[in-house]
Amino acid sequence: MSLISDGSTDTASSEAEILYLRHCHRGILRTDFVGIKNVPKADAAGITTAISNILTDNLGDTWKTKIVGMATDGAAVMLGKTNGVVARLMREVQRPFIQTIHCSAHRLELAYKDATKSLDIFNKVDNMLLAIYLFYKNSPLNRANLKASFNTLAQKPLIPSRVGGTRWLPHIKRALENLLIGYEPIMQHLTQIQNPNDAAHRKDSANK
């Protein structure tokens, strides 16, 4: 069997490790969710302990004789040659032949960023998307007024989503799509903020 592991952060900003199991059951390849466990400190020792405990709690000690591979992101804490999580697991179960796999989605995202990091337009768009996201995330009033702009234009409210901070390209794609779909309401709201005496803004405020 092979493990698929990644870090996660809950709404309280607590670090956790999530674990999936890739194995063959009666000739059929399967990927099953094994568990998730909080990690007091997201270093190699803490993550290794969390993964080991998840497996032992769910599978007993049999996993130690069956693990042959592990897929993770490319962070040093996971793939460090001497003290990374995979290296520690190898020593714990005494199986030095475990194959490590750098997540293909993560590698694709890294290749994308490497190819675009020198493009000025990419950096401007990336910063703009992040600024718009934070502008509405950090202000309940701005979010409420943006929803009002959507309603005024008879559109379903769509709050700008986050770009960056993750390793998955679909997050960038979703942030761009949300901006394009909500472009008119967003521009209407930003224009009203810039011109608070605008007649449409006064009318909308009076209705509230």
UniProtKB/TrEMBL annotation:
Name of the protein in its database record: Zinc finger protein 862-like
Gene: LOC106812704
